[in-house]
Specification:
- The complex is a heterodimer of chains A (about 525) and B (about 425).
- With about 525 residues, chain A is mainly α.
- Chain A contains 20 helices and six strands.
- Chain A has three domains: about 15-100, no CATH class; about 115-205, no CATH class; about 225-520, ABC transporter involved in vitamin B12 uptake, BtuC, CATH 1.10.3470.
- Chain A has helices at about 1-25, 30-45, 50-55, 100-115, 120-130, 135-145, 150-165, 170-180, 190-200, 205-255, 265-280, 285-310, 320-340, 370-390, 395-405, 405-410, 415-440, 445-460, 465-505, 520; strands spanning about 60-65, 70, 75-80, 95, 360, 365-370.
- In chain A, helix 10 runs parallel beside helix 14 and helix 18 crosses helix 19.
- Chain B has about 425 residues and is of the alpha/beta class.
- Chain B contains twelve helices and 19 strands.
- In chain B, helix 6 links the parallel strand 6 (about 160-165) and strand 7.
- The chains are: A mainly alpha (about 525), B alpha/beta (about 425).
- At the A-B interface, helix 4, helix 9, helix 10, helix 14 and helix 19 of A face strand 7, helix 7 and helix 8 of B.
Chain lengths: ~525, ~425
């Protein structure tokens, strides 16, 4: 027994030595030296190497004053080589830092460990990680893994990575074969390498290889420009969705009721703050809090809207200028209110996990989840609002009052109650828009001001009093803006859109979809 | 009799009040306490008040107590000039600490020069200025932007550059200097992408997609950001969502500090960089003591301390030293006395006031941590001397500022002429 243990210790000694010396020099090493040390630790073959490197990447590796290294585990601090617990205080420890470059290197060496991981998806991830920096040790690790690999998908990934490395092979025939096997791979690494080979200072010496690389590059480029068009279109639609969300509440208060509500932006802001408060109330369920804040924001902004209508707007019907001034004053009051309650600093509304990241269609096209959800959310809100206005008795009354108030009164509709409900509905929708915006922009007292102009622009452009006009108008403005942006820059694109709307309104005073019939003539 | 007594008492009261007034030194504080800049500037007002309180505890300056005169220019640039005039002419303050944005400084400059006032300006700025009446205790571009670019070029091997900024004077001038600097280092035009966005921009999708495309050519790419204020949050969020990590395309920011990160969701920002002359996380005794004093003064144990606050502290200490050396608060005497004076930085080393009215400063690069503080990944060997006129712009290459030998803030070494400031 004793003898066996001795043999094992002897067998480990060289590995242990390299590991121990590398670990011991970590606390004093510069970032450049640390990168070398990380490679030594990985190659040492020490059983704890992976745990140590992973801990280091996660910021859990510390050193005490004497230069001894400690790994922060779940139960406390342990010695990284032996795993035995140590008695050290967190205050005495200094973190062994990493910088971006070192983290990238650490991820690279950890990926080599992950190649042996049991889950196929983890192995694919590891191959992709290694592809980013294909040095000799990475190629060797991939070549060693290939014959053992059983999963076809992983095998394919490894073959692609090796083909990418094979582009630098000595024989032209090998390089040609590598180009052929990379056909269909449109990733940036392949594209960059191939375009270097096709032309320029580092072009391939062999004409056949140059031609093959050139053909492959042209094929990738045509796909690139196609997907870029798709991407721009999506950006436009998502910007359009934000505009529609912000404007749709206004389409009711301004479009249907004819009230110029300058405090509309502040109702959006209140919705965003509702999302913030909900997350404060449910700090451990960020996603749930966000979902619950949708109805909550509807209620909060809706009630404020009803109060505005009952308290101010009701007395000013038929006097648009005074309504404008009164609601503008009110918007300042509301801003100051949140400044006093929540401080003038921006509040941070957290993004739940399922809303961050992006949906990868292929190497050239990916769509961020948050934007995708916003487009869907806008469509749902729009549909719900359209149904409310066209299929419910409240909607019927709203339309009746807006079309002919006297007749509606004669039919026994309590018009002033309907006015309050309509204004509350529009305000509530603004609150819902605020929840969506809290995920995209800063939640602060000035949030509303950033959207009020855009909202009026969309409603006026789409045609006052027409929900479909708001939808189409918002989408058209969003797409136009994004089409212009690459050519003109963000500042100029906004100006151009504004000029375009002014000219458009000159030609068609009623907007894209003018209201027809008696109601329109009556206005 | 009784009436006479009251009159005497009143007269005595007035006399004693006048005597007391002469016995204080008035310190003007010209920072916005309302409007868009209030977020940043209120902190600096509080910093000056703290410094005055501390100084008075030590017995004031030359045996006189300091008295703060606080005005609110309300983030309104013309109002800055009006309030400055009020401080100098009506309140007759001996020194003013104030301004944040460059446009507010430009607006008060003529007022300070006309009335011969004294202004300490504590924020990093675009340079190209040196006034007889202003001392610049924040960084000039060669103390922040240029070292940051050097770090990216040498340590991270960056070959392609995105210069992204908000559309106003500080980013435009800084980017002009950086572009000239990069080209002088052999970077080609096609490897530089310049982008400007309006204040408070929130839809970053296409710009981030552009950056991604620009950075996917195989050459190491970095973003140098002069994006201002809260537009940074959606910018970093979008970077995170489009899966651009700090390892692939690092962003180095010149306007994102501890105060801006406080109360932010820092997850998407972790690993990105900022360049400053001060970081709260730097572990020195002086720094810890100053932060403790600040948190006690403001009565919030988690309040952050940042670069412009340190610059205010240094400016204040230098002024106190200069007054004691000159034995007077006279602007001309203090201005002469302050040149060459040194005070220790909170993070180590010393800040010396140079003849061009700028300071020597250490430069640090920090990586953003999850808790909103910074890990220092690089720092200059010693202090860097502030340069009022950039050496990389054709218009200011030959211009120098020296208020000791040349007595001029805008001296052209080629034509040997001293031209006045143009605002």
């Amino acid at each position: 027994m004793l003898w066996l243990g001795g043999a094992a210790a002897w067998a480990q000694a060289p590995a242990g030595n390299e590991f121990d010396t590398a670990v011991a020099s970590l606390p004093t090493a510069s970032y450049m030296e640390k990168e070398v040390l990380a490679g030594q630790i990985a190659r040492s073959g020490h059983p704890q190497a992976q745990a140590l490197l992973q801990g280091w990447l996660d910021g859990k590796l510390h050193a005490d004053a004497s230069g001894h290294v400690w790994l922060e585990g779940e139960g406390g601090y342990v010695d990284p080589a032996s795993g035995s617990a140590g008695k050290v205080e967190a205050d005495d420890l200094e973190k062994i830092g990493t910088n971006n470059r070192l983290r990238k290197a650490l991820k690279g060496v950890l990926a080599q460990f992950a190649l042996a991981s049991p889950a196929a998806s983890a192995r694919i991830q590891a191959v992709r990680e290694m592809r980013r920096e294909l040095d000799e040790s990475a190629v060797a690790a991939l070549q060693a893994r290939l014959p053992q690999e059983t999963e076809a998908a992983v095998k394919h990934e490894i073959e692609l990575a090796l083909a990418l490395a094979g582009l630098q092979a000595g024989e032209p025939a090998q390089r040609l074969a590598a180009i052929a096997s990379l056909d269909g791979d449109r990733s940036a690494e392949v594209y960059n390498r191939l375009s270097q080979m096709a032309s320029g200072d580092e072009a391939d010496a062999d004409a056949a290889v140059r031609n093959a690389a050139g053909a492959a590059v042209r094929s990738i480029e045509s796909w690139r420009s196609f997907y870029q068009g798709v991407e721009t279109l999506f950006f436009g639609l998502s910007l359009g969705s934000v505009l529609v969300l912000a404007a749709i509440g206004l389409a009711i208060t301004f479009g249907v009721m004819g009230v110029i509500n300058m405090a509309h932006g502040e109702l959006i802001m209140l919705g965003a703050y509702t999302a913030y408060v909900m997350q404060l109330l449910l700090p451990n369920h960020i996603g749930l809090a966000l979902l619950l804040s949708i109805p909550a924001a509807f209620i909060v902004s809706g009630l404020v809207g009803v109060a505005i209508e009952r308290g101010i707007v009701r007395h000013l019907y038929g006097r648009p200028l005074e309504t404008l001034l009164a609601t503008f004053g009110l918007s300042l009051v509301l801003q100051q209110l949140v400044r006093s309650v929540f401080s003038p600093l921006n509040r941070s509304v957290q993004t739940p996990g399922f809303l961050s990241g992006s949906l990868q269609f292929n190497d050239l096209l990916s769509v961020t989840w948050i934007r995708l959800y916003i487009v869907l959310f806008m469509l749902i809100v729009f549909a719900a609002l359209w149904l409310t206005l066209n299929k419910t008795s409240l909607g019927l009354k709203v339309r009746a009052v807006s079309q002919n108030r006297r007749m509606a009164t004669a039919m026994g509709i309590a018009t002033s109650r309907v006015d309050a409900m309509t204004f509350g509905l529009g305000s509530g929708i603004a609150g819902i828009a605020g929840v969506a915006l809290s995920q995209l922009t800063n939640v602060g007292p000035n949030l509303g001001q950033a959207y009020i102009i855009d909202s009026f622009m969309v409603v006026v452009f789409g045609g006052v009093g027409n929900l479909w006009g708001t939808l189409i108008g918002g989408m058209a403005l969003g797409v136009t803006n994004k089409l212009l942006e690459p050519w003109a820059g963000a500042v100029m694109a906004k100006i151009l859109v504004l000029v375009f709307i002014i000219l458009f309104i000159q030609r068609r005073k009623q907007g894209l979809f003018p209201q027809k019939g008696r109601a329109a003539e009556g206005h | 009799m009784k009436l006479k007594f009251i009159l005497t008492a009143a007269a005595l009261g007035v006399a004693s009040f006048a005597a007391q007034a002469a016995d204080t030194i008035k310190v003007g504080v010209l920072h916005s306490l309302s409007g868009t800049m209030a977020i940043s500037e209120t902190t600096l007002k509080d910093t000056v008040l703290m410094l005055i309180e501390e100084q008075n505890k030590k017995g004031g300056v030359m045996g006189k107590k300091l008295e703060a005169v606080v005005v609110d220019p309300a983030s309104n640039w013309p109002l800055f000039a009006e309030k400055a005039e009020q401080l100098l002419v009506k309140d007759k303050v001996d020194v003013v600490f104030g301004c944040w944005t460059s446009v507010s400084r430009k607006s008060v400059l003529p007022v300070f020069e006309k009335n011969n006032g004294l202004l300490f300006y504590p924020v990093q700025y675009e340079g190209e200025e040196s006034s007889k009446n202003v001392f610049y205790t924040g960084a000039s571009p060669n103390q922040q932007a240029i070292p940051a670019v050097d770090y990216l070029m040498k340590d991270l091997g960056v070959k392609r550059w995105v210069l992204a900024g908000t559309d106003y004077v500080y980013p435009r001038t800084t980017n002009k200097i950086l572009e000239a600097y990069l080209k002088s280092k052999g970077v080609k035009q096609e490897d530089i992408l310049i982008n400007y966005t309006p204040f408070g921009h929130s839809d970053w999708q296409s710009i981030v997609a552009d950056i991604k495309k620009f950075g996917s050519t195989g050459k190491k790419t970095a973003v140098v950001s002069t994006i201002n204020g809260d537009a940074n949050v959606p910018f970093y969020k979008e970077l995170g969502n489009q899966k651009i990590s700090a390892e692939d395309i690092p962003v180095v920011a010149f306007s994102v500090g501890e105060e801006e990160l406080a109360g932010l969701d820092t997850k998407p920002l972790v690993g990105h960089l900022a360049a400053w002359n001060y970081f709260q996380s730097i572990n020195t005794k002086a720094n810890k003591a100053e932060i403790a004093t600040w948190q006690k003064f403001i009565k919030k144990p988690d309040r952050t301390f940042n670069d412009p606050m340190e610059a205010t502290v240094i400016g204040f200490k230098l002024w106190v030293k200069a007054v004691e050396k000159a034995k007077s608060t006279d602007v001309a005497k203090v201005s002469d006395a302050i040149i060459g004076l040194e005070v220790p930085n909170l993070t180590g080393g010393t800040a010396q006031m140079l003849p061009n009215h700028h300071l020597t400063k250490p430069v640090y690069i920090g990586e953003i941590r999850e808790d909103g503080q910074f890990d220092i990944v690089w720092q200059t060997k010693g202090e860097v001397a502030g340069d009022a006129w950039s050496d990389y712009l054709p218009g200011s290459k030959d211009v120098e500022a020296d208020w000791v030998k040349l007595k001029c803030g805008n001296y052209n070494t080629k034509t040997k002429k001293c031209s006045g400031q143009n605002y």
